[in-house]
Amino acid sequence: MNLRQFAIEDYDEVRALWEESGLEIRPGDSKREVRSKISRDPDLFLVAEEGGKIVGTVMGAWDGRRGWLYHLGVLPGHQRRGVASALVREAEARMKAKGVLKVNAIVYRTNERSLSFFRQAGYIVDERSLIHGKVLAGESD
Question: Which CATH number does the domain housing residue 108 bear?
């Protein structure tokens, strides 16, 4: 398995992977929005490849204070083989090298498999906080 930085040319394959792996696709996942995201911290959006095919992704971000992980997805036929763990470890290592002190994972409450994965990876649910969102322009998530 090879881990590498996402390139915008990967978008169609990655979007199909997100859909096949059961991730909820939102307006903010458009090619335009992803292009904007990678202009900030391209080294934190990773893909895993096997045999030239993308089999997993994780999108990381750093807001200057905290690191964030989301869109962790692995093709169903490649799950439970260490792909997600490798992606998360690599994203964490890249964040640590940037000076990130804490990383948060965004997981929908209904995604039991991801909740379990992140618990096993040492992530703790902070019951004190909730993410609040507000759309500022156009359609977004």
Answer: 3.40.630.30
Residue 78 counted as domain residue: yes
Domain count for the chain: 1
- One digit per residue, the tens of pLDDT, for the chain of length 141 reads 999 999 999 999 999 999 999 888 888 899 999 999 999 999 999 999 999 999 999 999 999 999 999 999 999 999 999 999 999 999 999 999 999 999 999 888 888 888 899 999 999 988 887 777 777 776 555
- Phi then psi for residue 114, to 5 deg, are -70, -40
In a domain, 105, yes or no: yes
User: In the chain, how long is the greatest CA-to-CA distance?
Assistant: 43
**Containing domain of residue 88, as a range?**
2-120
